[in-house]
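Sample entry follows:

:::
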Amino acid sequence: MRSVRARAAIGATLVVAVALVAAGLAVLLVLRDNLIGQADLQAEVAAREVAGQLALDTRYEDLDLDDAQDHPVQVTDEEGRVVFVSKGLQAVSGTRSPGVSPVPSASVGATASPDDDDDDDGDDGGRPARGEVSSDDPDLSDGTATVDGKHADYRFAAVEATTSAGITLTVHAGAPLAPEQEAVDTVRGAMLTGLPVLLAVVAGVTWLVTRRALRPVEGIRREMAAITASEDLARRVPEPGSRDEIAALARTTNETLTVLEASVERQRRFVADASHELRSPIASLRTQLEVAEAHPELLDLPGAVADTVRLQALAADLLLLARLDAGEKPGAARLEVGALVREEVSQRAGDRIPVTVEVADDAAYEVSGSRGQVARVVGNLLDNAQRHAEGFVAVSVAADGRGVRVEVRDDGAGVPEDERERIFERFVRLDDARSRDDGGAGLGLAIARDVAARHGGTLTVHRALEGGAAFRLRLPRAE
């Protein structure tokens, strides 16, 4: 089943069905218990009424049994013999004895008259002695009875009564369970009739609500399919006006498309710029080789070597950028930044302007990362300073909170404030009049910022105290 709407409708229907069945069973059990409790109370009341009359030595034939049709009565003696049954009782089960034919007994008080004079006055001042009814909870049981040819289920209560002659009789009185069964059947029938209708309503409502809720998702899917087919990353999926998860999904999808479009555009521009930058040294080198082939005496060997070196450096820069774009993680070596800066400066003996190094000798500034890449950043910043400085280049290393700050300053023209972010873009050179040989390909600062970001740091440009540019590289200290 691939439809979300169908799965949601079926799932909701099953959950509601289980809940309704459980609730229905609970209702039926509670209803049945309440009705059986009422039947128990009715049976107990009927049994105690008869027991009270027997305790007063009322004759069996004089017992008041007006509702014998609804409350059949059976009386047994201590030996379990049936001594009395209510009128019309033809069969009974669930009592002490299944008999319905009274057995004559000389020991029962049915032959005694409550009006007979008794010379034994006892301790009651001459008043006749009376029996008693047991105050214990009655014994309750399920049974059946046939009264006037009608067979039905009953709930029987057994109450003991003691006559004035000391004879203990047990009165079994029943209460019909037909009302309970009828009520339970009625409720059960109503539930069985209403449950399918209710489940159908739940399924239909869930289907409609889910369909309405997922309608924006279908719009997003169609637009994404159209974007895939057309390869037009400038298109965007529709964003619903609601503030739910689907609207958040649409916004996130559009943000992803924006980033993807920018990435693809940057890649296209990068490929175009790289091809353009590579074309110049390759064409120059080819021209020199063709001239040398025809006129060996005209070979400009230093120029060919310079073009080859420039071509090699440009290829190395492009390879490093490709590795950075692929998400290559820097190493985890511990680097002492002060020593690294001194070493990098010491290898630049041929620089146009001597570089001043400012590092506290007694401080250790350790960072974690790739030694080659961090040295590459410092070298690129020094190259940039050498191209723009008039007579001063300095590099300093100092603590910066929980990090280390490397700052490269020069006394050149500086960087305009509105261009301070643009210079970190690839193949960007602010001085268009500068030749490519002098100004480079415009990749040094872009590589420096990417390496700084991969190491968890930042690279920014500010105005130096000397009037030129101050590039500040911040790297977190090694833990």
Summary: The radius of gyration is 53 Å. Helices lie at 4-55, 178-230, 245-294, 301-325, 337-346, 371-388, 436-439, 444-454. The chain has eight helices and 14 strands. Residues 4-184 form one domain.
